[in-house]
Amino acid sequence: MPLQSRHLLGLDGMKREDIQLILDTAVSFREVLDRPIKKVPTLQGKTIVNMFFENSTRTRLSFELAERRLSADVLGFQSTGSSVSKGETLKDTARNIEAMKVDMVVMRHPASGATHYLSRVIEANVVNAGDGQHEHPTQALLDMYTIRERVGRLEGLHVGILGDISHSRVARSNIYGLLTMGATVSVCGPATMIPRDIEKLGVNVVHNLDELLPTIDVLNVLRIQLERDAGRLFPTIREYHLSYGVTRRRLEKAGRDITIMHPGPINRDVEISADVADSEHSVILQQVLNGVAVRMAVLYLLGTRN
Amino acid sequence: MQILLKGGRLIDPVTGRDEAVDLHVVHGRIERMGQNLSAPASQVIDLRGKYVAPGFFDMHVHFREPGFEYKETIESGCAAASAGGFTGVACMPNTNPAIDDESVIRFIQARARAALNGLVDVHPIAAVTAGRKGERLSPLAELAAAGAVGFSDDGDPVGNAEIMRRALEYSAMFDRPVIQHAQDSAMTKDAAMNEGFVATTLGLAGWPDVAEEIMVVRDIRLAEYTGGRYHVAHVSAASSVDHVRKAKARGARVSCEVTPHHFTLTDEAVRSYDTNTKMNPPLRTAADIEAIREGLKDGTIDAIATDHAPHSFDEKEVEYSAAPFGIVGLETAVGLTLTELFRKNVLSLLEIVRKLSTNPRRILRLPEIRIEEGEMANLTLFDPNVEWVVDPSVFRSRSRNTPFGGRKLTGRPVGVLNNGQVYWADERPA
Question: Structure pTM?
Answer without folding.
Answer: 0.94
